[in-house]
Amino acid sequence: MLFILLGGEECGLYGSKYYCKNPLFPIEKTKMMMNLDMVGNGTGFFVSGGKTHSALFSHFERANNNYIHREMGASAVRKNYGRPRSDASNFENVGIKTFGLWTRNSVYPVHYHMPADKTNVLTPEIMEDAAKLLYLGILGVANDTNL
Q: Structure pTM?
C-alpha cells in the first residue's frame, strides 16, 4: 500500500502526471488509486468510479453496509474529453483503476476554493467514518486474491 500526496492538481495535474511517468511500483501491479477530495462536510458519501470498477467498489459497499451505515452513492468514471480536471484522469489513462471519494449532503455551506473554507465548516463525524470506510475498503481490496 502506498500513500502519496500529489501537488499541482489545480494548475495542471503536475503531481499525478509525474507519478504516472515515474511510478515507484510497476503500473501493472497497482490495483487502484483513491482520490480524496472535499471529504469533511456532510452526512453521506459519494464514490466516482464505483459503477465502473464494481469488483473493487464491492469492498467499500460491504464496509459501509456492515459497519458504517451512511448513505453512499456511486457513478461511473467520467472520461475527460476536454481539459482533465482530476488527478484520477492521469491514472486511468495508464490503466490504473480510480475512485474519487467525497462527502455529500453538506451540513454547512460549501466554500470551495474560498477563504471562508475553514475548520468551523467541518463535520468531524463524517471524517471519522470516511477514515473507517477507507481502512476497511482498502483492506478488502488488498486481501482480494481475485483482483
A: 0.88
